[in-house]
Amino acid sequence: MATLIAVANQKGGVGKTTTVVNLAAYAALKGASVLVVDLDPQGNASSVLAPDYQGPSLFGGAGILPVAGLDTLGVVPVGDDLIDHEHRFSDSAEAGRELRHRLNELCDPPDLTLIDCPPSLAILPGAALHAADRVLIPIQCEYYAMEGLGQILAYLQGMQEEDPEAAQLGGILLTMYDESRTLDRQVAAEVRAHFPKEVFSTAIPRDVALAAAPSHAQSILHFDPLTPGALAYLAVTKELLDGLE
Amino acid sequence: MATLIAVANQKGGVGKTTTVVNLAAYAALKGASVLVVDLDPQGNASSVLAPDYQGPSLFGGAGILPVAGLDTLGVVPVGDDLIDHEHRFSDSAEAGRELRHRLNELCDPPDLTLIDCPPSLAILPGAALHAADRVLIPIQCEYYAMEGLGQILAYLQGMQEEDPEAAQLGGILLTMYDESRTLDRQVAAEVRAHFPKEVFSTAIPRDVALAAAPSHAQSILHFDPLTPGALAYLAVTKELLDGLE
Ligand SMILES: Nc1ncnc2c1ncn2[C@@H]1O[C@H](COP(=O)(O)OP(=O)(O)OP(=O)(O)O)[C@@H](O)[C@H]1O
Ligand SMILES: Nc1ncnc2c1ncn2[C@@H]1O[C@H](COP(=O)(O)OP(=O)(O)OP(=O)(O)O)[C@@H](O)[C@H]1O
Ligand SMILES: [Mg+2]
Ligand SMILES: [Mg+2]
């Protein structure tokens, strides 16, 4: 297996971090060895998976920290130095090579590595897209997010033309889906029509438990595994793992 | 009056663009001369206020476009060249000086200039924070957004120590507030307790009309002015304009 997935979308607030944290938890629950790499200077994934961490980021020599409650899950947290390292690279491809190199030095490749990206198409997310095998794009069912989908797909295509090793599209995940809103139904239908093979059949519903779990530094698995949001992330994890074999 | 306000928050999806577009519309409705500057390469504000624009960004020589339906509102849209210009500057202060300079060349200062920032603390939002008189920080009532508030306030403080001309905190706006959720009430209470003077008394409720209006390239004023979201932006605009006199 040993798949490296970048979870990316330059549109902000679409559920990138929520997807990384919860996919990682359910994949580890199923027995896969999982590594989360936090490449977002905001450090939201780190605040859940390694809340007391003080230290460098991956580029500064960070190691893998265990995550309480899940034996096969580890995290490389963000450090205050991440932004400084971003300035060191002349482009994303160079940063991507170093990212891959550092990950290979850290450990034998786990079954699944998930990289949480910041909301941009700058050097850090670019590095993740160069280093990754696949990219998973969370998108909320709203107009601005749909507009942004074209941008990241065009960016991805441009990258693949220059660097055949760059990530392939690994899936589009509909998030914060509210069945009762016409807007959400329309956007979801439009995205499924344009990308029939790429969109996960499970959509993540809007569920306040998903927004509350981080304030307890927990994934939804440990916070409240029976909520609609939890069951949806369990189903998406199964879809993802089935697709990787 | 002639106030330049940067609407910024490195946390993604908190309502920066929605706030810029709708504050601008209601301020223009009240007769103020208003300019919106889109500094986000995503171009979400431009897709509502100048949907058919093809051309350079402010740094590439863009002019002011009128906005249909509001005589005293103009917009400087985003162009494909924006990301290239970002690489030209060695730091935010230099970019901020050029931003101020270009705006001064474009026109006599309008009563109100609103800059829509991308979700980061990189050069472009940094330029806006250096050029602006005040910064308005939208924040959704959720955990990650609250965590991020400390980061942007620390960034702002660091800037003010180096550059006394840099923006002062002009207000914190609670967005997507859902009265029925405990999480929202807790976060709102915590933010109001920490920043009693800075938080606008009006909170913007979660209202699907605000998410639907952009797909019609309209502000909420023209899309559906009687919805809770519209009435809240009207009230916030009044609070903002009263505070500027
Ligand atoms: N399905 C959901 N239902 C309800 N709330 C959600 C859901 N998914 C995410 N959230 C909440 O919405 C907000 C945005 O999600 P999140 O921070 O994961 O997005 P992001 O894309 O990582 O944001 P950024 O662009 O800032 O990195 C967070 O407060 C999160 O807790
Ligand atoms: N009060 C609200 N009620 C319901 N939906 C809202 C509200 N405010 C904003 N939205 C929707 O939430 C999403 C995020 O808002 P918006 O794009 O304005 O945030 P942003 O901070 O500008 O995002 P980015 O960080 O990507 O620039 C958009 O789809 C928008 O239409
Ligand atoms: Mg995130
Ligand atoms: Mg925006």
Task: Describe the protein in words.
The structure is a homodimer of 245-residue chains. With 245 residues, the first copy, chain A, is an alpha/beta fold. In chain A, 45% of the residues lie in helices and 16% in strands. Chain A contains ten helices and seven strands. Chain A has helices spanning 16-29, 44-49, 82-88, 92-106, 123-131, 143-162, 182-194, 208-212, 220-223, 228-244, and strands spanning 3-7, 34-38, 65-67, 70-76, 112-116, 134-140, 168-175. Chain A has a seven-stranded mixed sheet, with helices on both faces. In chain A, strand 3 (65-67) and strand 4 (70-76) form a beta hairpin. The first copy, chain A, is globular. The N and C termini of chain A lie close together (6 Å). The model of chain A has no long low-confidence stretch (mean pLDDT 96). Chains A and B meet through helix 6 and helix 8 of A and helix 6 and helix 8 of B. The structure holds adenosine-5'-triphosphate (ATP) (2 copies) and magnesium ion (2 copies). Residues 16-17, 40, 44, 116 of chain A line the site of one magnesium ion.
Mean pLDDT of chain A: 96
Which blocks of ≥5 consecutive residues of chain A have pLDDT under 50?
Answer: none
Largest sheet features of chain A: 7 strands, mixed
The strand order across the widest sheet of chain A is 3-4-2-5-1-6-7
Helix coverage percent of chain A? 40-55%
What structural class do the secondary elements of chain A suggest?
A: alpha/beta
Compressed to H and E, one letter per element, the order of chain A equals: EHEHEEHHEHEHEHHHH
* Count of β-strands of chain A: 7
